Amino acid sequence: MAGTITAFAATRPPAPDPSLPTLVAAEVSKGPAEAPVTITEYGDFNCPSCRQYHQLGIIDQVLAQFPGEVRFVWRHFPVITPSSPDLAEASECAADQGAFWEFHDLLFDASPTGKGEMVGFAEQLGLDTEAFSRCFESGGYRAAVEDQMKEAFGLGFRGTPSFMINDTPLAGPPTYDLLMSLVRDQLN
Fold it and tell me: pTM of this prediction?
């Protein structure tokens, strides 16, 4: 079920205007920061396997089974299509308006393909589309998204989705039973 990596460097837009601020992506997570178990997903909004995993709801089921004990963190690993980095940047612009998870869910449910659809998704969620467009067009989150991608490669990941369960890497999506077992092992 793991996705494949497609080279996209040649299709990337030019670097952001150095006169504009470089934005720092906020860590987006579900569950308490002090939870003893952190599940980190390195995913891509254009990844069919990530989409399927999201739609199965396994992470939400695990969070419900271990309230207060498990935290889920999303990290960008936009390697599937040339437009994947754009979708990651758009999600950060939605996060600026407190709507990361809603945008995350909409991207996976809608199966977007590119940059042109992002403002419409922001509008669908009731976001300030002018602020969203300014953020998105600025390229301010490009470096933050690329840093998360480099982090995933540095951990040895080569496809999406990939996971860290605390300090344990896990390439490919774990089944519900495997993830439950890994969480229980970490809690013991």
Answer: 0.85
